[in-house]
Backbone:
């Protein structure tokens, strides 16, 4: 029983992790938060679910479509809320992306209705019995795809020229620009990547819960922000660990305490982290004003 | 020597493993102009940051007039009399020249609910008149209503000093006051600092320009690689072999 | 006065109060993304006191303001030590926490809310707005107001001038929360029914939009923004159906064209805000 819950928790954490990574990529590249990323994930999930129910194409096709939609929306948000918004007003991009999120939710409810939508099961015949716990087909798919994307992102950032460019821009955009890194294109790439991750996370979360709702975007953003606080703003590995931690906490709370306490315990954790270690459990002192 | 007004003892500071200051001592006598010199990267600005409270030292103490201020924030050191300027000028660019000086008086102005009273009333009238006089002294009266960011560089430097003096400091810390100034401005800087000293102010000045240093300082401390190399009257110190070696590498 | 006109004045007045309250925090350069939390705290505090304890509304409003101010002070104290990005995250998360707590608290009706609050009158609302305006007129001409502007301009320079920046910013945040709490109390006693949903993210965005549309440089800019945006949906019915999309796009367009708002100086140096994350600002060792 416990092993099963631990596994479920890590699985939930793995999907959280994707969105949190998306947020952190943008924070790294621009020191900004894209508050529309949760809604991006929601839109991808709704469209993905629509393809799954309305067409006979295999799941991987709908998944690819969801990630593409996510990447496309994130690029659009980049142009609307970041590219042409003056850097002198740091909160302007947050406001603007919140506006984008509002529009995305409204458009989805107007176009597809505001009801919850069922996400069909995948690989429903498969069931792995590993003794201590069992893994359903859908869980297997989630685990594989989430791991693939996280590891893929890691390899991309560490081993490829474009990944190196992203890390250079994160570290110091001005210096990277002077060294000939095409900063604007790199930033565009990070937005696209963050959207792809968000889109994947949206559909995979929908798969885990068997449903998506147009109002999920907001919850997704909220969860991602809490992960970022716990893991440390801009810290990629901190984000991964915090996502897994929060996934575990949520699942275990629902299993052993009560469903109503699920979010509350995470809030308490966030509050404690902010008071005791404001730089995040795994972060360095990024973001903490030097107020000696 | 009598008990110094400002005493920095055995201050050590590391930045990510690099030693910026290694057990540095500094004694500044009241009413003197004290120069801190050294090549780039010697730790001069870090020392100033430690004294003004922007950088907490790893070890060591900062004592002002017998009071240990090592753990105080910069804003709490201002009312005690430690006020600084910045190497790259930090003005309130969007506020007017006069407002900048008024803000410099903040630590001496009314607090609590009374800080909501309009600026032109009561005890504030005296401070306001004082601010106007200070603008006149620094040749800024014509610009009083202009935004600080619109001033030419030299005047911004003047304004920053006017704002610092508005706090009525005991010790004024100047971080490269002559950098970026025209030759003419530099010439007017020397008598101004002397004037301040004659009025009883203690000045600590970090500076590259050896002319400025040898003209205004009563005492000079030389830093190199975060250590105090030597210390003494300017004529003697600047002529010493150690200092020549540190600067010229010969 | 017809009841329609009265309702319009009440709605507009409360929204102006919300915008003015928000402006107080913004005058120090600190943007909250969850001011609805303070609105909800004020609304529920006052409603509990009037409905369950039969307190008179004005006294309950004072209690609402004080409770919101305490919450604002605590959140401000936690968040304002950190960078602006953290402030955004913390206020956003806090408003959700408040929402969650209220919707799970049976004493206040949980998700279905409370009802039976009445008593918001035109003189009460106008009186509150006048009080807030009076405070802001004083603030704009005082040393405290100057200190707010200084913190907005450059925190380090403000520290160098001896401004106790954390104390001033937290004070501004708490005052802002208090005004927002009072507005929440008034709103609850106008609407007669309150549910946690009323204090959700849409309302949070509306408050910011009121303030930002008019321009953050002068407080009356915020008031004008609030008046304009509250009147539009009253006189243009179709807006009610489409307001999310219209207001969302308005945000996007405004931030590209005039991020400082419609009123106020343009260009660099107008309303410069400090950099979000000062970590890149390395001290030179030289």
Residues:
């Amino acid at each position: 029983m416990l092993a099963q819950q631990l596994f479920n928790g890590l699985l939930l954490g793995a999907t959280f992790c994707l969105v949190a990574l998306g947020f952190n990529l943008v924070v790294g590249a621009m020191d900004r938060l894209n508050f529309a990323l949760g809604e991006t994930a929601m839109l991808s999930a709704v469209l993905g679910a629509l393809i799954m129910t309305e067409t006979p194409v295999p799941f991987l096709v709908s998944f690819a479509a969801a990630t593409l939609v996510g990447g496309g929306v994130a690029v659009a948000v980049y142009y609307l809320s970041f590219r042409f918004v003056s850097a002198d007003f740091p909160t302007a991009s947050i406001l603007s992306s919140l506006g984008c999120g509002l529009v995305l939710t409204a458009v989805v409810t107007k176009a597809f209705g505001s009801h919850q939508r069922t996400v069909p099961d995948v690989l429903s015949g498969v069931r792995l019995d590993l003794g201590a716990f069992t893994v359903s087909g859908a869980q297997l798919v989630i685990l594989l795809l989430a791991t693939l994307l996280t590891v893929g992102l890691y390899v991309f950032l560490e081993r490829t020229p474009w990944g190196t460019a992203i890390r250079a821009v994160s570290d110091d955009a001005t210096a990277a620009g002077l060294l000939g890194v095409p900063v604007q294109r790199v930033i565009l790439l990070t937005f696209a990547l963050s959207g792809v991750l968000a889109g994947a996370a949206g559909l995979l979360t929908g798969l885990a819960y068997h449903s998506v709702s147009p109002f999920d975007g907001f919850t997704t953003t909220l969860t991602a922000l809490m992960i970022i606080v716990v893991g440390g703003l801009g810290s990629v590995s901190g984000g991964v660990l915090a996502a897994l931690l929060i996934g575990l906490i949520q699942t275990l709370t629902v299993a052993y305490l009560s469903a109503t306490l699920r979010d509350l315990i995470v809030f308490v954790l966030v509050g404690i982290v902010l008071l005791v270690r404001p730089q995040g459990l795994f972060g360095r002192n990024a973001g903490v004003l030097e107020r000696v | 020597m009598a008990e110094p007004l400002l005493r920095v003892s055995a201050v050590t500071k590391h930045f990510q493993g690099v030693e910026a200051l290694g057990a540095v001592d500094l004694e500044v006598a009241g009413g003197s102009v004290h120069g801190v010199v050294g090549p780039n990267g010697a730790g001069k600005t870090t020392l100033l940051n430690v004294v003004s409270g922007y950088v907490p030292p790893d070890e060591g103490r900062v004592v002002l007039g017998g009071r240990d201020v090592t753990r105080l924030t910069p804003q709490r050191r201002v009312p005690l009399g430690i006020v600084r300027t910045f190497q790259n000028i930090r003005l309130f660019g969007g506020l007017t020249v006069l407002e900048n000086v008024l803000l410099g008086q903040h630590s001496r102005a009314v607090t609590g609910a009374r800080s909501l009273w309009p600026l032109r009333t009561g005890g504030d009238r005296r401070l306001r008149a004082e601010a106007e006089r200070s603008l006149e002294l620094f040749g800024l009266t014509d610009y009083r209503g202009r935004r600080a960011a619109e001033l030419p560089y030299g005047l911004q430097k003047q304004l920053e000093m006017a704002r610092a003096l508005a706090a009525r400091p005991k010790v004024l810390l100047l971080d490269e006051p002559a950098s970026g100034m025209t030759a003419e401005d530099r010439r007017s800087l020397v008598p101004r600092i002397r004037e301040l000293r004659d009025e009883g102010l203690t000045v600590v000045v970090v500076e590259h320009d050896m002319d400025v240093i040898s003209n205004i300082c009563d005492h000079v401390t030389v830093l190199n690689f975060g250590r105090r190399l030597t210390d003494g009257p300017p004529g003697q110190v600047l002529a010493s072999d150690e200092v020549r070696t540190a600067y010229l590498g010969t | 006065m017809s009841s329609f006109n009265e309702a319009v004045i009440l709605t507009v007045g409360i929204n102006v109060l919300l915008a003015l309250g928000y402006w107080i925090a913004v005058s120090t350069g600190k943007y909250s993304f969850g001011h609805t939390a303070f609105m909800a705290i004020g609304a529920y505090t006052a409603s509990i006191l009037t409905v369950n304890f039969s307190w008179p509304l004005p006294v309950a409003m004072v209690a609402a303001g004080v409770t919101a101010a305490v919450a604002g002070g605590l959140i401000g104290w936690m968040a304002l030590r950190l960078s602006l990005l953290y402030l955004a995250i913390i206020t956003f998360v806090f408003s959700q926490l408040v929402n969650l707590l209220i919707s799970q608290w049976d004493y206040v009706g949980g998700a279905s809310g409370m009802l039976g609050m009445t008593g918001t009158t035109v003189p009460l609302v106008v009186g509150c707005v006048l009080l807030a305006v009076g405070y802001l007129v004083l603030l704009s001409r005082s040393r405290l107001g100057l200190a707010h502007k200084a913190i907005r301009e450059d925190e380090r320079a403000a520290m160098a001038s001896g401004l106790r920046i954390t104390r001033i910013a937290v004070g501004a945040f708490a005052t802002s929360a208090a005004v927002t709490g009072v507005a929440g109390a008034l709103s609850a006693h106008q609407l007669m029914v309150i549910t946690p949903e009323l204090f959700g993210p849409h309302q949070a965005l509306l408050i910011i939009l009121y303030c930002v549309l008019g321009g953050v440089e002068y407080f009356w800019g915020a008031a004008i923004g609030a008046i304009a945006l509250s009147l539009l949906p009253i006189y243009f019915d179709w807006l009610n159906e489409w307001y999310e999309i219209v207001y969302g796009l308005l945000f996007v367009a405004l931030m590209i064209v005039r991020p400082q708002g419609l009123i106020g100086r343009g260009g660099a140096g107008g309303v410069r805000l400090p950099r979000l994350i000062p970590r890149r600002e390395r001290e030179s060792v030289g």
